[in-house]
Amino acid sequence: MSESKTLTITCVDGYPLSAVFYPSALADSKPFPVLICPATGIVKGFYHHFATWLQQQGYDTMVFDFRGIGGSLHEPLRQSKASIVQWGQRDIPAAIDALLAQTSAEKVIIVGHSAGGQLLGIVPNYDKVAKVVAVSGSTGHVKNIRGRTGFLAPIMFNVIFPIGRYTVGYGPTNKIGMGENLPKDVAREWAQFCSKPGYVINAIGKQIDPSQDFHSKIKCPITAIWATDDDIASEANVKDLIRLYPNAATDIIPLEPKKHGHKVIGHMLMFKRSHQNLWPIIEQQIAA
What we know:
Blueprint: E1 5-10, E2 16-22, E3 34-37, H1 48-56, E4 61-64, H2 84-103, E5 108-113, E6 129-135, H3 147-167, E7 170-171, E8 182-183, H4 184-194, E9 222-227, H5 235-242, E10 250-255, H6 279-287
Helix pairs in contact: 3-4
């Protein structure tokens, strides 16, 4: 039976985030704890089984909900002022500090799923991160999105989100199978950031002061693990993410579904119990 503890993380602006801490199941825990940063619109419970598996491998592990999502939504969704920029500048830094406070470790390892692995370049306490493993990590540039998602994304970004902003007051993603409904500014920034290469780089000089752009200062290792059948994290978009960190040691690991006994991996399945034979591949990069 795994043990866990529910936490409330307080960000620099006072915003409370809901988190769960999974202490290592081994007497001697690994030197660096793991912070799981979710994908856009995905709640922390989605990562429960993966977090408990990491716990069994000896890692102190924490996962949290970004502001405006799941347990970190504290008002009617249409009233939420959450944004992706706030996720990077306030939420991830607070989660890093909270995990370090729980474990007395010097640094954390981030396992970031999609957007959760895209934001280190605007995280002010990036120097407290020992490594990033970006699962399904890419910039999501809409022109490089493939398949059904490649057809749906422009409609979502250019039609559904703008209409939703002025009718229901949020980004209605739930009914189209794209996670939780999103605060309107999260939806707007998602569309904006994916409209050009570079993702959050597109906010520098706009929503983000240039002095808060840390991409070139980051030197910790960054590994992107992606599935070759992922419509969003296509090879071009994965490479687009990696090139944002010119002074970091980077690596790209593609996974072909059939080679690992799966018909599909895609953008979301790497954290599912049905695909837990992939978890040692992620852990190998955490431990490297």
